[in-house]
Amino acid sequence: MESMIKQKIKEVKKGDQSSFEDIVAFYQNKVFHICLRMIGNSYEAEDLAQEAFIRAYTNIHSFDERRKFSTWLYRIATNLTIDRIRKKKPDYHLDAEVKGTDGLDMYSQLAADQALPEEEVESLELQSYIHQEILALPPKYRSVIVLRYLDELALQEIAEILDIPVGTVKTRVHRGREALRKRLRHV
Amino acid sequence: MNCKQEAVALMHKYMDGDLNKEEERRLRDHLQACQACQSHFHELKRTTTLITNTMPAQAPKDFTANVMANLPKEKKRRNYARLFQSHPILTAAAVFFILMFSGIFSAWNQDQQVTVSKQENLEIKDEVVIVPEGVTVNGDLTVRNGDLRIEGKIDGDVTIINGDIIDGEPDGSIDEELDSSTLRAYTGELTEVNQIYEWVWYQTKGLVSDIFSFGSDE
Question: Which end of chain A has fewer CB atoms at under 10 Å, N or C?
């Protein structure tokens, strides 16, 4: 599959716009997925994913064919999404640590209301609950968790996509995982 | 083993697949002994299972078509842009020509004042430069934005920019005698520059000959 994509990229570089269609079709779900899980609303996710593909197309000549295309494409998508998150009004109040406690945030105070009776949890509801919890993470943890668990990318690849050292990726994965453990323990 | 620090760090390393044999044994031993860490480990594993097993999102149906419809059209201009990107020398040449020609054009439009190269014994009257009778001008003569009337003699080349050469007789009678007298009036070449393209050509020629004379000086 990788070689098919490489061939298509060569054709796009030569000016064949229609070859780009296969690339979009192949990666659309992954890119949309990353954007959606990071931004949390499908309208914006579609907008961001579309923008990511258009940027990839207009900058295709700066793509180094010796590297992995998906890494490059995901990098465009995550950068766009992170920029969008930054521009939005930050709503970290639920994440802010409560002063004088060790790692307790406002979520731990609300937990009782949010825990749903297990018999009532439909699979879909559980899914959206998990997505909500991922969205509640601060963006820097959110991005690594999305890439690590929803796309099951290797730590090295995540480091390349986000342009941070592998050690930092690991630290963020650990912290993100701990934060989610606290939020999902009653599920 | 310190539960909070070490054991939890080992759990995360385990989940990243970074644990070596020795660490794995230590973690296992600790988990068997410590109830709190056991449940912590269990929760972590359950969390990763939960987030791994969420359904992948599907892009909207007409996503690909929308992207394709919004792509910029392949334009000639983009091709030029790419050409300049991939050939820096071309860019340098283009910039050089733009600067050179804009310099020449601005010099053309600069001043409408009559200017004459530095020579003695010249008279300037109503935008006409006169070489008086009986006077011999030594060296090349350049007249800008004015006409030239030669009554005496010039020993060298004559260049007239944006002007004409006017014959010696005020009544403007043209005869063979005038031709011969004018021919005798200067010893070098006569160059007249009246149009902007001539001006450009004149400048370019000057530049090229400058370059070559620099070369020959060395």
Answer: N
DSSP B70-121: HSPP--HHHHHHHHHHH-HHHHHHHHHHHHHHHHHHHHHHH--S-EE-S-TT
User: With an 8 Å Cβ cutoff, is B59 touching chain A?
Assistant: yes
Close Cβ partners of A46 (under 8 Å, ≥ 6 residues apart):
A32, A35, B59, B60, B63
pLDDT tens digits, one per residue of B45-101:
888 888 887 777 788 888 888 888 888 876 555 566 667 777 788 888 888 888 888
Asked if B67 is an interface residue toward chain A (Cβ–Cβ < 8 A), one would say yes
Count of Cβ atoms closer than 10 Å to residue B186 Cβ: 22
What residues have CB less than 8 Å from B207, skipping those under 6 apart? B100
Interatomic CA distance for residues B89 and B92, integer angstroms: 5
Where, residue-wise, is CATH 1.10.10.10 in chain A?
Answer: 106-184
Q: Are B47 and A150 an interchain contact pair (Cβ–Cβ within 8 Å)?
A: no
Taking contacts as CB-CB distances below 8 angstroms, the residues of chain B near A24 are: 63-64, 67-68
For residue B160, which phi and psi values (nearest 5 degrees)? -120, 120
The nearest alpha carbon in chain B to A32 belongs to B59
Give the pair of three-digit tokens for residue B218. 């060395």
For B56, the closest of A24, A33, A57 (CB atoms) is A33
Which residues of chain B neighbour A130 with C-beta distances below 8 Å?
Answer: 50-51, 54
Give me the CATH code for the A2-87 domain, please.
Answer: 1.10.1740.10
CB of B62 less than 8 A from some CB of A: no
- Best probe of the B interface among A50, A129, A145, A187, by most B CBs < 10 A, is A50
Looking at chain A, which residues constitute the CATH 1.10.1740.10 domain(s)?
A: 2-87
* Structural tokens at position A34: 């990353």
* Cross-chain CB nearest to B67 (options A37, A53, A155): A53
Whole-number pLDDT of residue A119: 39
Contact between residue A32 and residue B64 where contact means Cβ atoms under 8 Å apart: no
- Tell me which fold the domain A106-184 belongs to: Arc Repressor Mutant, subunit A (1.10.10)
Residue A82 CB: number of other CB atoms within 10 A?
17
Domain boundaries, chain B: 3-52, 75-110, 115-217
Can you give the pTM of this predicted structure?
A: 0.57
